[in-house]
Write a sequence for this structure.
């Protein structure tokens, strides 16, 4: 089996400067391909800044809700406020549905009187863990072998997910506010990238068009007087 030859010690990956240079070329080529002049481009960028600021204000509240709920949902693996902890145990499934309902009824805060009060049952055959979730967002964990309650507590994942998607506010707000806000957030991302690189493009164009500016800048940086500065 032939071994791959190692990279030479002088090999270097693409630098940030080269990546930025390729981006600037692609950016300039795109506007040239679309036939957009420098004046039209300046007017478009001015309008883009206004839209960027205006859209960010309009979507501030739904994006804030989506961001906070997303952060909380990402911690559900260790945050017991989001969902109860799962005790590690291994058991064989032996209980029936009547025993599961009886065990769930033994937890008063869950308010389970019948199967009509249960929204979901999560059974893990490999671990023997049974999770019964009630309508008031409580979760009761049951040992699948003995039928004993191993853990119980409020489970806020479904509530947070509903807030995250905007479903808690009804279909009108979900599809009329939260969905457009997600599209607007994508617009902010793309417009922010364009506005970030625009000053770099302008400086590069100015330096290539007036090379004496580079000499003046270097001379002033070294603290030496220059006759070019008087030009």
């Amino acid at each position: 089996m032939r071994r791959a030859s190692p990279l030479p010690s002088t090999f270097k990956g693409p630098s940030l400067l080269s990546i930025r240079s390729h981006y600037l070329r692609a950016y300039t080529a795109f506007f040239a391909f679309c036939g957009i002049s420098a004046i039209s481009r300046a007017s478009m960028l001015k309008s883009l800044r206004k839209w960027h600021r205006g859209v960010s204000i309009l979507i501030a509240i739904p994006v804030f809700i989506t961001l906070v709920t997303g952060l909380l949902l990402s911690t559900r693996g260790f945050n017991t406020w989001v969902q109860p902890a799962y005790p590690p145990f291994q058991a064989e499934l032996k209980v029936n549905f009547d025993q599961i309902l009886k065990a769930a009824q033994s937890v008063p805060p869950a308010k389970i009187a019948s199967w009509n009060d249960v929204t979901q049952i999560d059974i893990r055959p490999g671990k023997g863990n049974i999770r019964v979730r009630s309508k008031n967002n409580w979760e009761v964990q049951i040992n699948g072998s003995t039928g004993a309650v191993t853990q119980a507590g409020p489970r806020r994942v479904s509530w947070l997910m509903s807030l995250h998607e905007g479903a808690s506010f009804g279909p009108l707000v979900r599809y009329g506010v939260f969905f457009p806000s997600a599209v607007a957030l994508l617009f902010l991302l793309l417009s922010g990238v364009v506005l970030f690189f625009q000053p770099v493009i302008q400086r590069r164009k100015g330096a290539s068009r007036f090379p004496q500016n580079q000499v003046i800048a270097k001379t002033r940086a070294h603290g030496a007087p220059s006759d070019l500065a008087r030009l």
User: Anything to note?
Assistant: The first helix runs from residue 16 to 33. The chain is about 50% helix and 10% strand. Strands lie at 118-124, 129-134, 138-143, 149-154. Residues 28 and 34 are 10 Å apart (CA to CA).
